[in-house]
Amino acid sequence: MPSASQERPRGAALGLPAEGPGSLAGFSGRVAAFAVDALASALVAGLFTAPALPGNWSLVAFAAITVVSLTLVGQTPGMRLLGLRLAHPREGARLAPWRAVVRTALLCLLVPALLVDSDGRGLHDRVAGTAVVRG
Fold it and tell me: Helix (H, G, I), strand (E, B), or coil: what is residue 132?
């Protein structure tokens, strides 16, 4: 069993720092950002379905808000609130819409987000070639 000094820091394989800005975000921060985005999406959908509950329309709102915000600014409202952002495979480039759509579609299934690699990246991030990092 490797000693603590021999363990590979999370994100090292991706060229990310072990801690501080640009390091991989922790699970709790990503879950909190997701919860903020889910709540905001339900509120937005509720504006259009009131007085009835939004039901699956909140998932449509979640997908739309996530794809648009990731493509335009590289972070969802929940990520921004928690100081997180999406790291792109090419530093400084905008996320291609297809990557945002694939990542969001997998995230909507929820299970891929819970299947993580040794760096803690969810399957949806691995497929899209992205990672959620600290701002």
Answer: strand
